[in-house]
TrEMBL record:
Name listed for the protein in its UniProt record: Amino acid ABC transporter substrate-binding protein
Family named by the database record: Belongs to the bacterial solute-binding protein 3 family.
Keywords tagged on the record: Signal, Transport
SUPFAM superfamilies: Periplasmic binding protein-like II (SSF53850)
Signal peptide: 1-43
Gene Ontology terms: biological process: amino acid transport
Sequence ranges assigned to domain Solute-binding protein family 3/N-terminal in this UniProt record: 54-284
């Protein structure tokens, strides 16, 4: 049990998750006035992007390793690089993308309204989001799961010891539901769950002692830990309590755009599997390997099916590298996050990242 001496003071709601996350019905109601506009936007997203001269990509408000701006408003991260790959495929220029920072609670309205062309913002693929909300997930850029971050001084070794804990969470995420499910399944009770509008507010509340534990996707917790005053004073508990397949999504209604975004993701994976890198892609264009020839556009015109040129994958890999290069550059073992590939390795290397072939 966690005692009050180990935690921050503050208002308590015993055993109740604050109802701050918009329900599916509320989101649909809020978006109802935008549906006719969204339908028009959906009809030819690629044409709109080309006419505008840039892709509009929804990202987080700042999550190191995934989408994070520096003091010059230059964005970097795994989700950012995916949008740059799309821009490279369309324009042969990865800089032709505008990044729109969005909170968890605002991200879906922005996509529905047409304010953004694609949402690439550590968003969990769920059935309700994929169907009821009218979105298509293009793939899983990062296989993740929810965990718990806690101070070392509390001395806990397992999430099963979080009885009577106060828990910080970001509102508008699937994490609120998951934590309630986990406690019920394990016949445990928390003191309160406190939801905050933004990730920065949640981090500040946790670090100030407002709550005992911060729960989110494990990748996000690894990133958040770097923002704390003394990262070494905090540790992730070993349990992973949910499946969180994180990936980019687009609106229903424009199959060509959905295919373009989806096959950009598959192209990154296929390039890594075939050994095509940012450094050797020009050399690989001369390969006699049939799979490489089809992927790089020297055999067939597969790019035309998604409104692109035959060399669309060459453009992507030159701009961003393959999936493994993007992963290693942003979140891999050599970065401050130091996250091993694990499930995010290729299927040929013990992971579950797998792409259909280009043929």
């Amino acid at each position: 049990m966690l005692h009050s001496s180990a935690i921050g003071a503050g208002p308590v709601r015993r055993g109740v998750i604050p109802k701050k996350e918009p329900s599916v019905k509320r989101i649909l109601f809020a978006a109802a006035g935008l549906l006719s506009l969204a339908g028009a936007v959906n009809a030819a997203t690629l044409d709109d992007v080309k006419a505008r001269g840039a892709l509009t990509c929804g990202v987080t408000q700042g999550l190191p390793g995934f989408s994070n701006p520096n003091d010059k408003n230059e964005w970097s991260g795994l989700d950012v690089d995916f949008c740059r790959a799309i821009a490279a495929a369309i324009f042969n220029d990865p800089t032709k993308v505008k990044f729109t920072p969005l909170s968890a609670k605002d991200r879906f309205t922005a996509l529905t309204s047409g304010a953004i062309d694609v949402l690439s913002r550590n968003t969990t693929w769920t059935m309700s989001r994929d169907t009821t909300l009218g979105f298509n997930f293009a793939g899983v850029m990062y296989y993740d799961g929810q965990g718990f971050l806690i101070r070392k001084t509390v001395g806990l070794k397992s999430a099963k010891e979080l009885q009577e804990a106060s828990i910080c969470v970001q509102q508008g995420t699937s994490n609120e539901l998951n934590v309630g499910d986990y406690f019920r399944a394990n016949n445990m009770k928390y003191r309160e769950v406190i939801a905050f509008a933004t990730i920065d507010e949640t981090v500040k509340a946790y670090e100030s002692g407002r709550c005992d534990v911060f729960t989110s996707d494990r990748s996000q917790l690894a990133s958040v830990r770097l923002k704390l005053t003394n990262p070494a004073d905090h540790v992730l508990l070993p349990e992973t309590i949910s499946k969180e397949p994180l990936g980019p999504l687009v609106r229903h209604g424009d199959d060509q755009w959905f295919d373009l975004v989806k096959w950009t993701y598959f192209a990154l994976l296929n390039a890594e599997e075939l050994g095509i890198t940012q450094k050797n892609v020009d050399e690989q264009v001369n390969s006699q390997n049939p799979d490489i020839k089809r992927l790089l556009g020297t055999d067939g015109k597969y790019g035309e099916g998604i409104g692109l040129t035959p060399d669309w994958v060459v453009r992507i890999v030159k701009a961003t590298g393959n999936y493994g290069e993007i992963y290693d550059r942003n979140v891999g073992p050599a970065t401050p996050l130091a996250i091993e590939r694990g499930l995010n390795n290729l299927w040929t290397k013990g992971g579950i990242q797998y792409a259909p072939p280009v043929r």
